Amino acid sequence: MSIDRTKIKWNGWGWTAHQDGLAQNEALWTWLAAELGMPALLATPARGLESIAIAPPQLSPEAREKFTAIVGADRVRDDHYERAFHALGRSYHDLLRMRSGDLSTAPDAVLYPRSADEVLALLHAASELGVAVVPYGGGTSVVGAVTAAPGAFKAAITVDLSGMDRIIEIDTVSHIATVEAGVYGPALEKALKAKGFTLGHFPQSFEFSTVGGWIAHRGAGQSSGGYGRAEDWLVSAKLATPRGVLSVGGFPGSSAGPQLKDIALGSEGVFGVVTEATLRIVPVPAADDYRAYLFRDFQSGAAAIREAVQSGIPHTMLRLSDAAETRFYRAYGAVGKRRGARDRLADLVLSQRGFDDKACALIAGFEGDAATVAKGRAAFDATARKYKAMALGQGQGQRWKDGRFHGPYLRDPMMERGVGVDTLETAASWTKLNDLYVAVRGALDTAIREAAPREGAQGVVQCHISHAYPDGASLYFTYIFPRALEREVGQWTAIKTAASDAIAAHGGTISHHHGVGTDHLPWIAGEKGALGIDVLRAVKMALDPKGVLNPGKLIPPV
Amino acid sequence: MSIDRTKIKWNGWGWTAHQDGLAQNEALWTWLAAELGMPALLATPARGLESIAIAPPQLSPEAREKFTAIVGADRVRDDHYERAFHALGRSYHDLLRMRSGDLSTAPDAVLYPRSADEVLALLHAASELGVAVVPYGGGTSVVGAVTAAPGAFKAAITVDLSGMDRIIEIDTVSHIATVEAGVYGPALEKALKAKGFTLGHFPQSFEFSTVGGWIAHRGAGQSSGGYGRAEDWLVSAKLATPRGVLSVGGFPGSSAGPQLKDIALGSEGVFGVVTEATLRIVPVPAADDYRAYLFRDFQSGAAAIREAVQSGIPHTMLRLSDAAETRFYRAYGAVGKRRGARDRLADLVLSQRGFDDKACALIAGFEGDAATVAKGRAAFDATARKYKAMALGQGQGQRWKDGRFHGPYLRDPMMERGVGVDTLETAASWTKLNDLYVAVRGALDTAIREAAPREGAQGVVQCHISHAYPDGASLYFTYIFPRALEREVGQWTAIKTAASDAIAAHGGTISHHHGVGTDHLPWIAGEKGALGIDVLRAVKMALDPKGVLNPGKLIPPV
């Protein structure tokens, strides 16, 4: 396997060995308690794995034997750790369950196939045996897409693709790479870099997620402004299905009917298991430049991004924090530090230039050859000036880039202190974006107050625009709230429902890059329409007639 | 109706009033006869419409009454001209049939709905009555996609969308326009231009084709290098289906499962009728520059295009003719003209610089703001120089642009002289492109000789690369051949089959922008795979359970 599962937290984010001192920073927690309107934060440690019981595996001896004959005994795993590790994804909701010791969705076995043929054989067998199959890449889903629930079946197996991580071909003429689906981000980028290329797909989960997962949930990385989303860089994919292999895409331009790439993109394992993919790659950029700007308010920052994208200013990323996020990170960074003369001077300059508590920070990233980077930066500089923004230089941009994958590590120490944190995201046309922003922010603020553990407690709700398109942009909300310990799942559900209802009512998609899984199921029929859902069901029936693949995800029950 | 059908040729291309003097240019026909290895060309006039009998309409009085109740009596047409006009598309194969008087696929009635609700009602009624429905935009399909064949049903109606041509909204903030599907190219561009925008979709059929048709056959216009293909500019679409309205797409970025835009894109009317679409639009470019280059051979020209596209040189079009096409158009342009001192000097310069009969002309187009145009042009100039190409200036580029929609008018006078002409196109990765080019060219040359009317007769086979992508490019073949008059359909089928087999054997798609229709059906299962075809059948069954929509197109019979 390309990554040692025992070195990753089974009930939290990232490497077990990761150390950042956050948990011990008492000043930080005191400050955060005040932000949340709480007198103090409570210790809420997770249960140890050794103390958690998991029901015995439900796989019949016959089924276990058949699966073992396909992948070999050492690749059929049903020990305590493997089952716990694969029980759930990595959403806030998942963490609540894992930390409390609810591993009721532990798979009955975890299988590690080494080839597409083995996956195909597993699917045939599972289909015949009536065993649910949960495809699993890096397992970082935050919408419940890898929860190993058996649905209507007696048992569920997780098919972990991490043993399938071969780089099959890097075609430097056509700028495409063909790889197995289980390859992790860092391994892929290392192999591509050796040939002078990059995919440029850097989701926050980059270190712990796989190519197959990026495709199956239709992902967008932090640099998608420059390198595109999964649907932009996916050239073709092979899916193993209970009815055989399905190849989709494969031509640089084709009008030979529907291209069917959507059978892979966003399919979340319900139609088949992505076993192999061909990806469009680009030369490693010769130069890069990440820098920060301060805009007067969210609307003017959004307008600058819109103008930049619509006029084709070459960029890799334009990321605008709203006033709350800007303020929060500034305050967070200042916790426990003495304010010096430089800080006071900076405050003075800002205030003299008329920046107030509506100010919004924007990180702009430019990558490419030196001329393109210079052009992009100069053009965006001019756009920012037009909107009376202040250029803050490269320091903050570089710091963002250095810490681009660290965000999720913040969650576990919060979980230890009775603090909940979750994110949700949407996208809409520029015309609808501000109303959507106001509505979702309002819904989160209100729902958090209403579901708070005590009077006066409140949330910290932040938002940024991280992905922009000529016709619209995404909104990414982070919300931090004091947990109501005796009704944690209900609290989260109330907040999530309020925000999702607001998204649906204001023309946003229920997900810009997280996917549907189980968490977004209640809103998917509204978004796709009843007939759209019928189409998804028809496709599923054609490829997975017994319905063994990832039951309960993506497609609402009839 | 937005376009007067009586002013368009019912059995050929374009405006009936179009005059270009080609038919009377005897020197041209003498030259062409020699090119084809024929002693002379025969007169092969088309049968007049008045002399052609069409079987009486097969629509039952009950059906006719129901349809009339929906759209009104003046919009249910079954006169001789309307039925003849809508019997077939505009492929070479179609023209053979129309000119010979075979109108066996004339629809039993032509209906002109005025709204999506009317289309929906028509589909409900047709589904109940068991009447085939052929959706029709501009009718310029060259693959048989609008042939009004009833399939397993007793009668077929053509639903002509040209009465639905409203511009619903032009959103200049989000850069999107929502229009009805029946709007023609020129009307769309006129409405957009009034607001300072363009779609930039300019297929050769631009004047005579509709937005709905562009979407349904997944089109690519001549300027797709700058403005994208249908799948790039389509934001969302509404389809009327026998089971109701299906909306697909609609979010600038969404990972909420499969986006289902392929239910519209390339669907060729078999899943539903596109009634409305939202399109990404861009500001009208401030500047443009079209110019020509001469490359030493096809391979170096292709390499320059590849480099330009992969390095992101901004361009609207890069169009490389192969040596045969370059030579043909040069000779064609010189027919009947005296060669003067300037021509001899030009020949001398070319020969001194080492350009021989392998030389290939390239037209490059750049559009955008002045700086982008200048940058694109300078960058492509440098790339061309690297490959030892010669810059030929703007004259030839401007001439290409001025005549960009005139090509199809050449066909009718050829048809009058016993000459056949057809085009076919494909696309593949850069790695496969040259082998594909050689194979298809060889297959066409051989098949034309083998199927020729006499010993020594031959074809003129030309090719150009007209659309390029980072991972590959299209090949567009034009082949001109002397018709074997007593077995014309067999001759065409033999040539088409040989070329299509070569495409399939060398990794090309069976169509880059023409679509599937009926003509490419034999190769579609090879391209999509049996399981891919099953998926298409499942989608069709979900939306059109009775199978009334465009029978016999896109999806091979079971």
Written account of the structure:
The mean pLDDT of chain A is 96. In chain A, strand 18 (468-469) and strand 19 (472-482) form a beta hairpin. Helices cover 36% and strands 19% of the residues of chain A. Chain A has four domains: 6-16 and 39-163, 2-Layer Sandwich (Uridine Diphospho-n-acetylenolpyruvylglucosamine Reductase, domain 2), CATH 3.30.43; 167-283, Uridine Diphospho-n-acetylenolpyruvylglucosamine Reductase, domain 3 (2-Layer Sandwich); 287-404, Alpha-Beta Plaits; 408-505, GMP Synthetase, Chain A, domain 3. In chain A, the strands form four sheets. In chain A, strands 12, 13, 14, 15, 16, 17, 18 and 19 form an eight-stranded antiparallel sheet that branches. A five-stranded antiparallel sheet of chain A has the order 5-6-10-8-9. The first copy, chain A, starts with 25 loop residues before the first helix and ends in a 15-residue tail after the last helix. Chain A has helices at residues 26-35, 61-71, 80-85, 92-100, 116-129, 185-194, 211-216, 224-227, 230-233, 298-310, 323-334, 341-352, 370-386, 395-402, 411-415, 430-450, 488-505, 521-543, and strands spanning 76-77, 109-111, 132-136, 156-160, 167-171, 176-180, 197-198, 234-241, 244-249, 273-280, 282-283, 287-295, 317-321, 360-368, 390-393, 419-429, 460-465, 468-469, 472-482. Chain A is α+β, with helices and mostly antiparallel strands and 558 residues long. The interface between A and B is large, with 85 and 85 residues.
